[in-house]
Amino acid sequence: MKDELRPRNGTSTTNSASLTTLLQETANGNTDSFAAFYRSTRPRLLARLTFILHSPVLAEEVSQEIYLHIWIAAGDYDADRGSPMAWLMMFAHRRAVDQVRSEQALADRERAFGRRQFSPDHDVVYDEVGQRLEQRAVAGEVCKLRSRQREAIELAFYGDRTYAQVAIDLDIPLPTAKARIRAGLKTLGRRLSSSSHDLP
């Protein structure tokens, strides 16, 4: 196997023949060759992924998935169909596009959920429950809520946070924060209605 790949003509670009050799050796299970291929191609791969994903963190995550695929599928590379870098970039483009679509679909679902679950800020349930949250019995009911709803409601009412501030504190989208608070308030409203005679 070749030692550490060296630049040609003063450039940092590794020639296709060297990368082809590294892929062939990787296909035979040579971890050193895979490591050399990784070091030689990673800067360009990350630059491409970051350009598509607009997130260095996501680019890093996706790059690891791509290199895992390369390790497994190195034997599938066909030099007659293109250079190793072109082959790698093809995988990068496909995986990055899939990631963008996945992120968009998740955001769409969260927005749709928020629209279905959340009604205007000032409504009967919100005001009624808000006025009674300081009561001991209500505090006990808050503790029984699901953890995500409970932490959102505690921030909003006991922490005197706005919806936007709750979203920032919990690192979640604003519609999701609203949906959690609304769902928790509905649960509290039902419980308060059924046990109102126990409240002072």
CATH superfamily of the largest domain: RNA polymerase sigma factor, region 2, helix turn helix motif
Number of strands: 0
CATH 2nd-level architecture of the largest domain: Orthogonal Bundle
The profile of the biggest β sheet is: none
Give the rounded overall mean pLDDT. Answer: 75
Radius of gyration from the alpha-carbon trace, in angstroms: 27 Å
The tally of structural domains comes to 2
- In CATH, the topology of the largest domain is named Rna Polymerase Sigma Factor, Chain: A
**Helix/strand-derived class?**
mainly alpha
The run of helices and strands is: HHHHHHHHH
Are there runs of 5+ residues with pLDDT below 50, and where? 1-14, 117-122
Determine the number of helices (DSSP H or I, runs of at least 4 residues): 9
Provide the CATH top-level class of the largest domain. Answer: Mainly Alpha
Proportion in β-strands = under 5%
How would you describe the shape? rod-shaped
Distance N to C terminus: 81 Å
Helical amount: over 70%
Family: Belongs to the sigma-70 factor family. ECF subfamily.
GO molecular function: DNA binding; sigma factor activity
Domain RNA polymerase sigma factor 70 region 4 type: 143-188
Keywords: DNA-binding, Sigma factor, Transcription, Transcription regulation
